[in-house]
Write a structure and sequence with these properties.
single chain, alpha+beta, Heat Shock Protein 90, 5-stranded antiparallel beta sheet, 4 helices, 5 strands, about 25% strand, globular
Length: about 160
């Protein structure tokens, strides 16, 4: 059998030298996750936050960041089981900024609203301690349209370099 001539259907790829790999800058830190309000999601959030902080050269904040994400997501999951929760982590103005949105509706009755907010704050005692020790701030409030629900946020300042 005579040899067959094969021609390439695809062009030859040209490789260019890659620039040296650099870790991303902390100013570019942006993590957003939407998770079902189930217990295993807190672990997913913890590990994601740790990985992102390490990748952005903020490994010394990985444990604190994981704790913040864990605490906020556990409470959101308890109050809205099985419903989606949203986690956002950004670096802004020298601080790590966390936002968790859940679908727990805002109570219309003022007494129920007060009791619900107190319940949430009491359950976040560990978060309150951590944020206070790190000189940060946190809070809970009504999420704006279109999603409505409840928004919890934390701002953890980073040590000055």
């Amino acid at each position: 059998m005579p040899p067959t001539l094969r021609t390439a259907l695809c062009p030859v790829t040209v490789t260019f030298p890659r620039p040296p790999a650099r870790p991303p800058r902390k100013e570019a830190l942006a993590l957003s996750l939407t998770l079902p309000g189930e217990p295993h999601c807190a672990r997913v959030a913890r590990e994601s936050v740790r990985a992102v902080l390490r990748a952005h050269r903020l490994a010394e904040y990985a444990d604190d960041g994981a704790l913040v994400a864990n605490e906020l997501l556990v409470i959101a999951g308890k109050l809205t089981p099985g419903k989606d929760v949203y986690l956002s982590l950004r670096y802004r103005a020298g601080a790590l900024r966390f936002v968790v949105w859940d679908q727990h509706p805002r109570h219309r009755d003022p007494e129920a609203l007060t009791l619900c907010e107190e319940r949430r704050r009491r359950q976040l005692w560990l978060l309150d301690f951590l944020v206070h020790e790190r000189g940060g701030d946190w809070g809970v409030g009504e999420a704006q349209a279109p999603g409505r629900g409840t928004k919890s946020w934390v701002s953890l300042p980073l040590a000055e370099e």
